[in-house]
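Collaborator request, handled under Task 6.
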Amino acid sequence: MHPALHSWREELPSTLVRLLAYVGGLAVLSTVAAQVFQSPPVMSAITPMHRSPWIEIERPFPAFALTIPEAIDVPSHYAIRRHAQGGGRKDILELGEPDTLAPYLQVEIYRPGGETRRFAEPRTAIAESAAALGPIDVHSDEPLTSKFGLLDIVTFDTSNGTPRHCLGFVRAYDDPRLQLSGWFCQGGAEFVERSTLACALDRLSLLSAGSEPKVGALFAQVELNRSFCGQRDTILASTPKYKTLWKALATRPDPRRLGR
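Structure tokens returned to the collaborator:
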């Protein structure tokens, strides 16, 4: 065999290996260059979702009761919310529909944890808790006497949903740390009578204090001040049909006649 031909056959495999290695290197360099010099991806701004620090308990075990026989057919709702960081607890009792002309009462018993050191002043507390109602014309009124003592009263009108007049109330205690607050709203031309609110809170009672004996002692003490909606008053008790509580229910339009 000719020497030149023999040399070509021996060198062919090594030449192919070098050629393949060269082509592979070019492919790797091309890939790296494409990654380096390509335009960065456009990232859209992500708006963080606001999450309330209060978590609602799915199956609340009621610790309080609002027993009003005159409103036995009125929708009611009980909720318990816990603060995710501080551990505070809010028991919320609702009576009535929140967006109708009929009376609507909401009572909140707040037992704070580490999330706050002091309670807000009455106007601020009511404005914040009733934010969904769109309170307007918020101003303080004369304190109201109740079985819980003097209540700070705040009056306001609603701007969201059905227009209503509301009486907000706040009573805070230092020992135990507890705040009683809420509002009583009614639509139409009439305003909620102060005696109606006092009578409604007269029916608020404790079912279970749990591990807080001071709360049990507080409610036992306020029961001694209970007037039974005026029945202990010599003037009001002489009136056999003293039914100021939820009296607006009797004047609600008959739903069977609506739309005729």
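The cover message to the collaborator said: "The helical segments are 3-37, 122-129, 194-202, 213-223. Residues 54-249 form one domain. Please let us know whether this matches your experimental observations."
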